Amino acid sequence: MARPVPLWALGLVMTLGALLLLGFGFVLLEPRRHGALGDAAVWVATIPDTVGRAVGELLPYHPTIGQPYDPLPGGLWRRPGFVDPGYILLTVFDTARGRWVVQLLRLRDGHVVRTYAPDIAAIHARSTFHSALVDLARDKTNRRFMPMHSMLMPDGGLIVHDTSPLTRIDACGRAEWMIDGIFHHSLERAPDGTLWAAYRLPRSTRTGLGPEFADEGLMHLTPEGKVLSRTAVIDLLDANGMGHLWRARPYSDDPIHLNDIQPVPGDGPYWRAGDLLISLRNLSLLLLYRPATGKVVWSRGLPWRFQHDVSVLDDHRISVFDNHWRFAWDQPEQAEPDGNNRMLVYDFATDTVSEPLARAFHDLAIHTRAQGRATPLPGGDTLVEETELGRVMRLAPDGTVRWSYISADADRNRFELRWTRYIDPLADKIGIQAAENARCE
């Protein structure tokens, strides 16, 4: 170690090291142009993050919200005199377990009927895909797995995902089936009982696209986990003369961002049974798509901007949770809602857009940069979730808050939500009873 080193040797090593570093940076600027070398460079660049996450697994985990919020008490608040007979299925951070869990909560008294905490790491051990988009062993451990838009099933179990395989568990958390891949955002049930799920390919096979390109798709499946069809959004757009919406712009790994697939309830003046309303966030675009023919029968971009959660109100109106973004395309980290979020209503009959809850959204300062839900409920009420700020509430048609739930610990530290689902006491009676009566070892 004390042996003298010639100055020329030190200079040569430093020069070669600098050249190697410059070359590495050059490849990382456009890794997709360098094939396997680019993939290797991206992998090397992620090593510090991987090591950091591994170390983080050894440290206490308390994923509170980092943005400003009112330090209000957590839990359910109910307006005196109003009794909601329904339930909600929501993802919360369980401080005692140190992990995210799903709770089935009864709204009339705030009682948690069942808590789901599956051994998701053991379930994901059956997965075989490899992707630059997600590393299940690193990113989706038991304590970091945040179930999104969980669906209650008749046996009291759930279907869950979190940018991960789609998995059905029973009421005790045991896996019934798993569809490998990357599923995200919405999971919806069609009138015929089949399901529609949003997914991404682990790695796109299209030429000219990087390893982190989000190649989105619609999956049609049965509750038993049988895949009926897969439709790539890119193919859907290209086949309907809309490919320019994602091709004719600066390259982005996430040009589409599919976030909602909503089956229509049946035949109507403006749609047919089997049609789907589709939300493409990064195009600020809604589609009415007919899988039977492969045709887009209606589309509209704006006035919503980077919207989530399109829903059917009646036979001629739809509602949209509008994140109402104000941002520069090349600086998405600066994106923010322009004031507050909005719930917009589009009327097919008059081709007009209204904002019936404008005053309520303003007064309640509903402001989630990403995510968000505005789901119609029986009687004209709306379930609104302010995802990033951990608040969900039921609003009357005049904007009155009938109840609200805040995800927070005893010290009023706030946690995110993950697309709370309203559970109807009649339509989901069998599943509720099965969840309540299940006995687990």
Your description of this structure?
- It is a single chain.
- The protein has helices spanning 7-29, 35-45, 47-56, 120-124, 136-139, 233-239, 244-247, 358-363, 429-437; strands at 75-78, 87-94, 99-106, 112-116, 151-152, 158-160, 164-169, 175-189, 195-200, 216-221, 227-232, 258-263, 276-280, 285-290, 295-301, 308-312, 317-322, 325-328, 331-337, 342-347, 352-354, 373-376, 382-386, 391-395, 401-406, 421-423.
- It has one domain: Methylamine Dehydrogenase, Chain H, CATH 2.130.10.
- The strands form six sheets. A seven-stranded antiparallel beta sheet has the order 5-6-7-8-9-10-11.
- Helices cover 18% and strands 33% of the residues.
- With 441 residues, the chain is an alpha+beta fold.
- It is built from nine helices and 26 strands.
- This is Arylsulfotransferase family protein.
Structural class: alpha+beta
What's the number of helices?
Answer: 9
End-to-end separation in angstroms reads 61 Å
Largest sheet at a glance? 7 strands, antiparallel
The number of E-state strands comes to 26
**Percent of residues in helical segments?**
10-25%
Which term fits the overall shape? Answer: globular
InterPro entries: ASST-like (IPR039535)
Transmembrane segments: 6-29
Keywords: Membrane, Transmembrane, Transmembrane helix
Organism: Novosphingobium pokkalii
Short structural summary:
The protein is an alpha+beta fold. It contains 9 helices and 26 strands. The mean pLDDT is 93.
Topology diagram in text:
Blueprint: H1 7-29, H2 35-45, H3 47-56, E1 75-78, E2 87-94, E3 99-106, E4 112-116, H4 120-124, H5 136-139, E5 151-152, E6 158-160, E7 164-169, E8 175-189, E9 195-200, E10 216-221, E11 227-232, H6 233-239, H7 244-247, E12 258-263, E13 276-280, E14 285-290, E15 295-301, E16 308-312, E17 317-322, E18 325-328, E19 331-337, E20 342-347, E21 352-354, H8 358-363, E22 373-376, E23 382-386, E24 391-395, E25 401-406, E26 421-423, H9 429-437
Antiparallel strand pairs: 1-25, 2-3, 2-26, 3-4, 5-6, 6-7, 7-8, 8-9, 9-10, 10-11, 12-13, 13-14, 14-15, 16-17, 17-20, 18-19, 20-21, 22-23, 23-24, 24-25
